[in-house]
Amino acid sequence: MSFTIKFKCYFLLVLLLLPMLYRILTEFGVGFTSSEIQLLVAGITLLFGTILFSKDLLKKNLEQKSSFNIHILDIVFFFFCIWQIFPTINAVNIVEAVYASARTFLFFGFFLLFRKLFSIADFSTRKFIFQAASILSILLCVLTYYDILELIKSGRKYNSGNLYFIEKSFGHKNPLSAMLVLLLGFNLLGFLVNEGKRIFYIIAAILTVSTILILQSRVAFIAMLAFVVIVFVGWYLLRLSSKQKINLSSKRFAKFSVLGIGLAGVIAISSFALYVSKADLQTTGRGRSVNERLVQWNKTKQLIIENPILGVGPDNWKIRYGENGLDGLNRAMDYAIFVQPHNDFLWVFSETGMFGMILYLAIFGMVLMGIVIAFTSADEMHRKKLIVLFASIVGYIILANFTSLRLLVEHQALLLILFAIAIIVFDKFSVYNKFKINIKPIIPLVLLFLVGSFVSYIAVVRIYNMQIFEKTLLASDKKQWQKVLNISDKVNQNYYNLLHTGQPVDYFKGLANNHLGNLPAAQKNLTNALKVNPINVSSINMLGDVYFKQKQYEKAIGFYQKSLKINPIYEEAKFDLARANINLSRFAEARKWLSQTSSDEKQKQELMAVIEKYDR
């Protein structure tokens, strides 16, 4: 049975890494955005995992004449998933909220699967997990070094800017660095449990640390520093304890852990302050990423204040964050679309409200507290493992405060495996035993199957509708407006109604009808588009164009001003305001807007000639 389970574990790991391969293929022009593909592969992986291990799980329970133990952490995680329903109902865009909620349920499913997998696996199978993770870290390091060599060969400078898009399977260097920080914990856990292969894990750890340093990701460096301080100070104190020079209690363990976190915090704040002092919110260049985060965090704070109980709904941050204007992000909007606040905790708070935030924090808090409690009863070897687990989760928390990891399946899978390992240790040392509930083992298997099926279905229908909409975009680029209408009508907006850029599907219908002169239809399309995304400046401004063509200039001006309030450097709106004011004989106002726009010089001169002709 051992070999069978090991093989099944290998199969699951390969499935989980398939989205990474897909993201490499996207660099060669394959398809659309990869988040739906990630979700689909992960959903299928959960389904296959449930089917593959169902026999082993049931057999183990029958042999031991035991039922499935529901842990307090399972309950908290489950309630966090269930709570998503209430913010979803409250969301502006329910379609996006359902999609995001499916992702949360997926991670809960993986958590259940991983922890039961670890409960039935023997020692060699658990060792295999650490071996596989360490092989992955070495592979990522080698790929990164290869990309750096290619960078140098191409004649580009070795600097932070050019390193940003190293190893494209992760998008850019920050997710890659975060992955390596998490894998560092697996390197050390493998080092502890595989006495005969320690040199392999030492090499993997050294390569991982050196690659994190080479990639120059500040956040990853801070997380790694906290990890290293907690691990090596903890191990050093354990050594002193074993020689009876000190008594290392769980209270002392907690104290030195706080010191490690504090040291990383001081460095983080100092580094952050240095970049903030050089920040200019209206320019790009040095400190740009810090500037963007400052603006995003401030807007997220406003969303939290305005929606403290239910939040704005899962995945609705990207729709609601611009309601008070995009000033400070305007330059960034030229090259990036922001769909999350680069802080997982603020993100959860803004989208699921106060209760969702409390549950999310409780998941991390209970794991960390459980590790501290288990530390009291554990022997020296288990104490070393607990220190590594604690340091790994602290590292993740630091990473999650400065970047967005909740979207990334591989990162979440590693975190959930760490949680699963922690619960195995908790069971061994009777942590949280009072909060266990026994249920029939078939119930969680059915739940896992339902979650996997639901997630896979959501992903499949979104991908199908996205493929249809790809043709709409092509027709729009070629200005084939009737074709745009014909194809876009086939898109089922119950599953897909918003591009990752924030453009609603109905915007393109409105665009086509506007060009074809079907103004009432265009007005209806654009009104529907604003129900999907109320701050889409393209839809708002085009609705102004529809009223302009109907000679309702005052209404048109209202929409042009609304689009400028959201994005003050939206050039098209300034030009359109000049046109509308000319038609109302407000020539001074028209001159003002014309002087502020950097539109085509020929068009500006033509409008100015009209002003000069009639302003007498």
Task: Describe the secondary structure blueprint for this structure.
Layout: H1 2-26, H2 35-64, E1 68-70, H3 72-83, H4 85-90, H5 94-120, H6 123-153, H7 160-163, H8 173-193, H9 198-215, H10 218-242, H11 250-277, H12 288-306, H13 317-320, H14 344-377, H15 380-400, H16 409-428, E2 437-439, H17 442-477, H18 481-488, H19 505-516, H20 519-532, H21 537-549, H22 553-566, H23 571-583, H24 587-596, H25 601-614
Antiparallel strand pairs: 1-2
Describe the protein.
Helices cover 75% and strands 1% of the residues. It has helices at 2-26, 35-64, 72-83, 85-90, 94-120, 123-153, 160-163, 173-193, 198-215, 218-242, 250-277, 288-306, 317-320, 344-377, 380-400, 409-428, 442-477, 481-488, 505-516, 519-532, 537-549, 553-566, 571-583, 587-596, 601-614; strands spanning 68-70, 437-439. Strands 1-2 form a two-stranded antiparallel sheet. The chain starts with a helix and ends with a helix. The relative contact order is 0.10.
